[in-house]
Amino acid sequence: MNATAQDLEIDTGVAAVSYRDPQAPALFAESLRTTGFGVLKDHPIAQSLVDAIHEDWLGFFDGEAKYKYAFDKQKHDGFFSTAVSEVAKGNDKKDLKEYYHYFAWGRYPDEVSDAARRYYATASTLAAELLSWLEMHTPADVRAGFSMPLAAMIEDSPATLLRILRYPPLTGNEEPGALRAAAHEDINLLTILPASNERGLQLKTSGGEWGYVPSDFGTLVVNVGDMLQEASRGYYKSTSHRVANPTGESARRSRISLPLFLQPRPEVVLSERYTAGSYLDERLRELDVK
Questions:
Q1: Low-confidence ranges of the chain (pLDDT < 70)
Q2: Using CA atoms, how far apart are residues 169 and 151, in angstroms rounded to an integer?
Q3: Nearest Cα to Cα of residue 247 among 7, 6, 4
Q4: What is the dihedral of CA 95, 209, 228, 108, to 10 degrees?
Q5: According to the model, what pLDDT value does residue 63 have?
């Protein structure tokens, strides 16, 4: 299903907040509570760093070297081609994308600069601050259910993942109904995503409509994952989102996306039902990748 002009008219309720605003922590937390998404402008991640990653990795995905780094079936690091791309939970069509999984301990291509590594470190530091913002503005009764401070959950986590995504140009021969990324929810605590070089990210509103997430180039999009929903007993809700197929000239261009999935250490207790490790294992089995 392609994006339409009607999508542009849907108010998602997500407003961009300046990182420098003294009220930013409260405004950001409220946006995540009500919509599952927050958008930050004036944030500390340099746009030049994001630009360098886009340039590096567009070249990498266009070349043959990526096949040297085929994903490890046990560790899940490395390159995933369009042929082995994800099928979103509850969907039956592969997403129209290829991607590289980078963990702090994992393989990193020799053919690109260290920009993505630096982004991983910088964004992880910012993530800890954003989790502290949320905790500060979470009601005491909800906060009492956390097994530890939210920022502590991701400290030195081997599971935090940077996915460098490339959505290839559309050819017109795609399987009917296939999307660049079908509707899904993220499993982790938070996802941090610099606005892409091409628009496409949409969220599902409480009214069941799809609208674009405000994402001017240079802003940072943050969304709640299932683990934070679980740890907060539903106070923060993981919102369904997707990447729509573009039309016109945009359909002929690649789209790079850099989601950083903030995963707690496997032993971290999320709730009476789950540790982070058991929750992740369950989802991977549901996705048929474990």
A1: 1-9, 90, 197-198, 288-290
A2: 38
A3: 4
A4: 30
A5: 96
**Residues ≥6 apart with Cβ < 8 Å to 22:** none
Residues 19 and 222: beta-carbon distance below 8 Å: no
Q: Which ranges of 97-182 does DSSP label H, i.e. alpha helix?
A: 115-136, 140-143, 150-153
Helices of type H across 192-265: 226-231
Question: In Å, how far are 93, 98, 280 from 174, measured between CA atoms?
Answer: 10, 14, 30
Closest CA to 192 of 44, 21, 12, 4: 44
Tokens describing residue 247: 């039309």
Beta bridge partners of 120: none
Q: Give, rounded to a whole angstrom, the gap between the first and last alpha carbons of the chain.
A: 29
Q: Among all chains, which residue has been given the structure tokens 């606005």?
A: 195
DSSP 2: B
Contact 261, 275 (CB under 8 A): no
Q: Hunting for tokens 């549901």 — which residue is that? A: 286
Domains in the chain: ranges and CATH? 5-286 (2.60.120.330)
